[in-house]
Amino acid sequence: MMFNFHSMTGVTIWTIVAVIVLLWLAARANPITVAGSFVRELLSSRKYFLHFAAVIAILLVNRLELWVEEKLPAQTDFTPAIFHLEGNLVASIQHFFEHPTLTWLSSFFYVVVFPAVMIVSIAVYTFHKRQSLFYAVCYAIIGNYLVAFPFYLFFPVFEVWSFHPDVRLLILDSFPTFEETYRSLSGLDNCFPSLHTSLSVTMAVIAFKSGNRFWRWFAGLTAAFIIFSIFYLGIHWVTDMVAGVVLGVSAALAGIKISERKTGKSKVYSSRNDSLGQ
């Protein structure tokens, strides 16, 4: 059954529901047990706590970036250059596929499944004692944001719908208050690179290292669908996506490498856990 989002409260509730379902499917355990293992790890390990706190801090810095951007002198708008490069490609994708059901599903993945995948990744890797994967996720998320911030400040690119006359912000059909409630999390000109793309790809790359068959396929398919959704919903340019994929893969591989070095492990997955998620 399709429904509309009317507030961030509704988005939060559905994200919690998605997290609970995905925890059960990915960990094959009671979601409360999985969440409890994460809380215990945070309380018992100073290292765990500091890494998780750093991730929360970088997410909060995202709000600070918007404030800094307002204080900076006006920067050159690179949107016309992107449009000159791509033309009507995003408009063609949106017009070809447009359908109410697909609009709702794309919106659901964009605002609900996207954050749920990051939350579940952290919880499941903790529950399965894959500490190196937990640290890899932390380093990769921080890396994604640290690389993206300078572009958002000094290389502004506006979302497609706000520039292209033939592209509509379809997410408004399922989330009518999107501009009033969700917009505070992302500036209208914070388009290049696409963090929805980069973070989704990062989660997929790390998931494929986990050995959890359900999670690696779910994270991979989710990343692919979110990449489609950013075009379909009229938000990102193809150029944003390409940069996002490069950033996502690079951040994931760097996160894994740093984690291996700091944990003293040469690989993040052992054959003992090969049956996880099967």
Automatic annotation (TrEMBL):
SUPFAM superfamilies: Acid phosphatase/Vanadium-dependent haloperoxidase. The keyword tRNA-binding does not apply. CDD domains: PAP2_Aur1_like (cd03386). It is found in: Membrane. Keywords: Membrane, Transmembrane, Transmembrane helix. Its main location: membrane. Pfam families: PAP2_3 (PF14378). PANTHER family: PA-PHOSPHATASE RELATED-FAMILY PROTEIN DDB_G0268928, PTHR31310. This is Phosphatase PAP2 family protein. It comes from Paenibacillus residui. The lineage of its organism: Bacteria, Bacillati, Bacillota, Bacilli, Bacillales.
